[in-house]
Write a structure and sequence with these properties.
About 40% of the residues lie in helices and about 15% in strands. The protein has about 170 residues and is α+β, with helices and mostly antiparallel strands.
């Protein structure tokens, strides 16, 4: 076997290995995005929200919103612009009222910003919607749950609430 043949075979094997590794990494990105903390950086090009899982969509919204609050949004958006892009107008107006009444951030539903969060799907959701439970972690060591509801048709967030009260026995 000549030196050139060996070299071509090695280059081809390297190219195939690189392609396989890149492909498997790309396939695993949505699952990884669900577990990232607030400090994680956003991917270079986010897929269309119509193709995302609800947990991934909420994760990206929370990251964008926190970046906007901190003046670090990749496109220079304000928190109001991020809310406008991801929330229904009705919800955005209701959250503004909630924030004034509670003197707290209406998205994180707290006076302080969380240091991170985790997400999980709720067991049940109204028809045509998905509900994602966000457990926010704070510097003090406390956590709170916030429930996000997404309309699966328009892919806009149309509900942000505190957890439902337990049923009385």
């Amino acid at each position: 076997m000549s030196h050139r043949t060996k070299l071509r075979g090695a280059v081809a094997a390297l190219a195939c290995t690189a392609a396989l590794m890149a492909g498997s990494t790309l396939l695993s990105l949505p699952a990884q995005a669900e577990n990232r903390s607030a400090a994680a950086t956003a991917p270079a090009a986010a897929p269309s929200t119509r193709q995302m899982m609800p947990t991934t969509q909420i994760e990206l919204f929370l990251r964008d919103y926190l970046d906007a609050i901190n003046g670090q949004h990749s496109e220079g958006h304000s928190p109001a612009k991020v809310r406008e892009d991801h929330l229904t107008k009705k919800l955005d107006a209701a959250l503004t009222d909630w924030g004034v009444a509670h003197q707290a951030d209406p998205i994180f539903r707290a006076q302080n910003l969380p240091t991170g969060w985790s997400l999980r799907d709720a067991d049940s959701s109204p028809e045509g919607h998905a509900t994602v439970i966000v457990t926010e972690n704070f510097e003090s060591g406390t956590t709170i749950d916030v429930w996000f509801q997404i309309n699966l048709d328009g892919r806009l967030i149309d509900g942000i609430t505190d957890p439902p009260a337990p049923a009385a026995s």
